[in-house]
């Protein structure tokens, strides 16, 4: 297992370097730049200093190498210095946002709690809803429960989240006034009253995203369970007198989870990427909103960094999914 993980990590390094190069070039060579937004009234010498401060006077390949060094060495060094009192980073230049002129990772650190609270909770709720629905729908195939689950799943991943979000706002926020329509990102949970307020403002965005996630995962779970329920080992287990609960929950479920684990694992990076549309609808000041704002402002370092973090997480959770295969299915061996 350790040899396999080490080998996969060695493969991941050139993969991530290639991805980082593609992301950097696509964003850096896109039309428009912050330099074009500098007013014409700014004196030439001041404009030159602004360009140098942004690092835009360097060739593209030099900028790419500097960005890699900042991402993999300078920023982790600053994090270690802040937590352990070391001096690894010194006065090295950090990745600076064109928009705020502050380090990009400071903005990301400020936005992650909002994203993890809302998007992370929605994903967890969606998984917890989807798995039992998919399992029971497969076990009771073509029953009224299966038909209802199929109907709601079709609605869940066919209707766009911006429509679902606006619909819930109109019904539950505007008409019934049960929940707020705008997420208050400044709210701090300090007591029971503020906790209840936090839960109330999370209900609508979490519901929208949980419905979407549950619809997709439940269909995968149902399909995988149906594939395994018809296998010979299931008939053999029943013929030996095993209880139905043991057959379904111990044998069939374990094998059925293997493809579902891939779907769940690859969906986790989307939590950190933020739900751009839902965050815009409910005014959640998360990473999705930060990415949209950076794109509008041509904030290249912010866009490049957020996109690359998302790519790193996808590669990482691919590896985690492969390792979980061996845990769920002992037949899988890593050479």
Notes on the protein architecture:
It is built from 13 helices and no strands. With 335 residues, it is an all-alpha fold. The protein has a domain at 111-296: MetI-like fold (Orthogonal Bundle). Helix 5 packs across helix 7, helix 6 (161-175) packs parallel to helix 11 (276-282) and helix 7 crosses helix 9. The longest helix is centred in the middle third of the chain and has 38 residues, at 192-229. 28% of the residues are buried.
| The level-1 CATH class of the domain at 111-296 | Mainly Alpha
Mean pLDDT, all residues: 79
Biggest beta-sheet profile: none
| Number of contiguous helices | 13
Q: How would you name the CATH homologous superfamily of the domain at 111-296?
A: MetI-like
Distance between the termini: 8 Å
Brief digest:
By secondary structure, the protein is mainly alpha-helical. The protein contains 13 helices and no strands.
Supply database-style keywords.
335 residues; single chain; mainly alpha; MetI-like fold
Reconstruct the topology from this structure.
Blueprint: H1 2-28, H2 44-54, H3 60-84, H4 104-139, H5 144-158, H6 161-175, H7 192-229, H8 232-239, H9 244-267, H10 269-273, H11 276-282, H12 287-296, H13 300-328
Helix pairs in contact: 1-13, 4-5, 4-7, 4-9, 5-7, 6-7, 6-11, 7-9, 9-13, 11-12, 12-13
């Amino acid at each position: 297992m350790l040899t396999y993980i080490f080998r996969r990590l060695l493969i991941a390094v050139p993969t991530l370097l290639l991805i980082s190069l593609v992301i950097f070039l696509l964003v850096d060579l896109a039309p428009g730049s912050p330099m074009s937004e500098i007013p014409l009234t700014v004196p030439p010498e001041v404009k030159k200093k602004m360009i140098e401060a942004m690092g835009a006077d360097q060739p593209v390949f030099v900028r790419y190498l500097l960005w890699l060094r900042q991402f993999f060495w300078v920023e982790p060094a600053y994090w270690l210095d802040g937590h352990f009192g070391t001096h690894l980073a010194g006065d090295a230049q950090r990745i600076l946002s064109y928009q705020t002129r502050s380090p990009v990772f400071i903005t990301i650190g400020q936005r992650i709690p909002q994203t993890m609270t809302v998007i992370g909770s929605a994903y967890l709720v969606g998984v917890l809803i989807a798995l039992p629905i998919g399992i029971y729908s497969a076990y009771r195939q073509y029953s009224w429960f299966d038909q209802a689950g199929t109907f709601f799943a079709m609605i869940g991943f066919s209707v766009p989240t911006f429509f679902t979000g606006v619909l819930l706002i109109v019904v539950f926020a505007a008409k019934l006034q049960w929940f707020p329509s705008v997420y208050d990102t400044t709210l701090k949970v300090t007591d029971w009253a503020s906790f209840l307020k936090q839960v109330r403002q999370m209900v609508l965005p979490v519901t929208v995203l949980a419905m979407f996630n549950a619809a997709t995962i439940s269909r995968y779970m149902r399909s995988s369970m149906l594939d395994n329920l018809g296998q010979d080992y299931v008939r053999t287990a029943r013929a030996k007198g095993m209880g139905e609960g043991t057959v379904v929950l111990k044998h069939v479920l374990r094998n059925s989870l293997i493809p579902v684990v891939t779907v769940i694992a690859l969906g986790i990076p989307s939590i950190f990427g933020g739900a751009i549309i839902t965050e815009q609808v409910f005014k959640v000041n998360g990473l999705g909103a930060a990415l949209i704002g950076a794109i509008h402002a041509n904030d290249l370092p912010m866009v490049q960094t957020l996109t690359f973090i998302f790519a790193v997480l996808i590669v990482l959770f691919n590896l985690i999914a492969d390792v979980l295969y061996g845990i769920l299915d002992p037949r899988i061996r890593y050479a």
